[in-house]
Specification:
The complex is a heterodimer of chains A (about 45) and B (about 425). With about 45 residues, chain A is an all-beta fold. Chain A is about 0% helix and about 40% strand. In chain B, strands 11, 12, 13, 15 and 16 form a 5-stranded antiparallel β-sheet that branches. In chain B, strands 6-5-4-9 form a 4-stranded antiparallel β-sheet. In chain B, strands 10-17-14 form a 3-stranded antiparallel β-sheet. Chain B has 12 helices and 17 strands. The longest helix of chain B has 17 residues. By secondary structure, chain B is of the alpha+beta class.
Chain lengths: ~45, ~425
């Protein structure tokens, strides 16, 4: 099974992990990485 | 004729399973052959609320020969048979060794499950839908974090390009509205504002103040008619000395039947005309993340943030496996599969969560939606590509939808 999230968030970074500007959404996960419920995927 | 019928001895013979599967494949193939085909030989998906004259959506399963064979297989029938088979009660003496073997093969951590007594799970379906021990999944405490809704593997994540394309790192791209339905289906939705941060239509306040927003408890701030309020004060009538007196306080039971001024205030806030985000300088973008749940993973999904679920769009679709292998070989996989798109708002705008089914887990559960039935054999949703939309606006008049709190269980996937 799969869960797909699509959401709107301020600014943010591109996929390669560069951080754009202050206050934008920033990913904190890795492709192929294992995650558990409640673990942080990203932060605004 | 009567004598022949009454006197002829009836003998039963087992037929080879392959013959049975061949027959099902043939009947599925014939059904597919009868589907409406548009002028370019594409299978046409028909949407429930398709307005006359609207160009039908083209969904076309293509890929290597394995995928072609798979797309003619009666996957839904297999899924229902698999669900039926796994809901047969197992003998008690077989349960513990059986579930231990399953856990060993698929990597289930038996120390985490809520009910450690394996004999209490009557069948594999119940074991598959097991709960976890309370507190075993701590929720990230950061107020502005987005957390994982499920146990699993992160397949893709990134930014939705302008024009609504969800791009994968491995180049698999599909249009957003093919995944969660288009904006025009029954409900207007905010389109992602252009990165230049132009203000949302119809308001003349500066952009950083016109972001659509959401009521969330405790730490959010709101401005009503230019006066700053904390949220508890707004709903419960308590105000710090810096805030002017508010209308009479509401009791918890009152929230069930809000007074007109509460509704008008809440609507004001939700419509975003006076909403103030904590980062006024930010313009918003659209992001996506895809998480794959393997057979041994905990199969319930939780809310990644505080948000209000306003709409549910159930796409019947097929039940292809969503394993990484098929992901690589079947473009548009997610737009073909049975899925339930939950759409709503969080404090930064649009928020959607879409659980996608697969052949072994075709039944998608949403705890607060008792009407939802997926993996249906008959009825209006048996037609591939059909879509059914339901609104949760009545769940909470003040918020206009079902309030989902960060970390709260939303639903899950059941076998078959």
């Amino acid at each position: 099974s799969t869960v797909v999230l699509v959401f709107e968030a301020p600014g943010g970074e591109n996929v390669e992990g560069k951080i754009e500007g202050k206050g934008g959404f920033r990913w904190e996960c890795r492709r192929g990485g294992k995650v558990k419920v409640g673990e942080r995927l990203g932060v605004v | 004729l009567r004598q022949a019928l009454s006197k002829t001895r009836i003998e039963w013979y087992p037929i080879p399973v392959g013959l049975g599967i061949g027959f099902l494949a043939f009947s599925q193939f014939r059904k597919a052959a009868r589907r409406p085909i548009d002028e370019e030989d594409h299978i046409v998906a028909v949407e429930e609320s398709q307005s006359p004259g609207q160009k039908p959506k083209r969904i076309r399963p293509d890929g290597p020969w394995q995928v072609q064979v798979l797309s003619t297989m009666p996957l839904k029938a297999f899924s229902r048979a698999w669900g039926w088979f796994n809901s047969r009660p197992l003998p008690v003496f077989l349960r513990t060794p059986g579930f231990k073997l399953y856990s060993y093969i698929f990597g289930v951590n038996l120390d985490e499950i809520g009910n450690p007594d394996l004999t209490s799970y009557r069948n594999l379906s119940e074991f598959f839908y097991r709960e976890l021990r309370p507190g075993i999944r701590p929720i990230d405490p950061h107020p502005n974090s987005l957390v994982s809704p499920a146990d699993g593997t992160i397949l893709h994540f990134g930014e939705v390009r302008p024009g609504g394309q969800v791009e994968q790192v491995k180049g698999m791209t599909y249009p957003l509205d093919a995944l969660i339905g288009s904006k025009t289906i029954g409900q207007e939705f905010p389109t992602p504002p252009a990165s230049s941060g132009t203000s949302s239509p119809g308001t003349n306040t500066p952009p950083e103040l016109s972001q659509p927003g959401i009521l969330t408890p405790d730490e959010e701030f709101a401005i009503v008619n230019g006066i700053h309020y904390t949220l508890p004060s707004l709903l419960h009538g308590t105000s710090s000395d810096s805030e002017p007196p508010l209308p009479p306080p509401l009791s918890e039971s009152d929230l069930g039947a809000p007074t007109p001024n509460t509704v008008s205030v809440a609507n004001d806030l939700i419509e975003g005309t006076t909403w103030h985000t904590l980062h006024p300088s930010a313009s918003t973008k659209l992001f996506f993340c895809v998480i794959y749940l393997a057979p041994g993973d905990y199969h319930r999904y939780h809310s990644p943030v505080n948000w209000v679920v306003q709409l549910r769009r159930h796409f019947s679709g097929e039940l292809f496996s969503v394993s990484p292998f098929l992901q690589r070989h079947l473009p548009n996989l997610f737009t073909l599969n049975e899925r339930v798109a939950l759409l709503g708002k969080w404090k930064h705008g649009l928020f959607t969560m879409t659980p996608v089914g697969a052949t072994n887990v075709g039944s998608i559960i949403v705890n607060f939606d008792k009407e939802l039935r997926t993996n249906h054999a008959r009825g209006e949703l048996a037609r591939p590509g059909a879509l059914k939309e339901a609104s949760y606006a009545s769940a909470s008049e003040v918020l206009g939808g079902w309030p989902a709190r960060k970390g709260e269980e939303i639903g899950g996937f059941k076998l078959g």
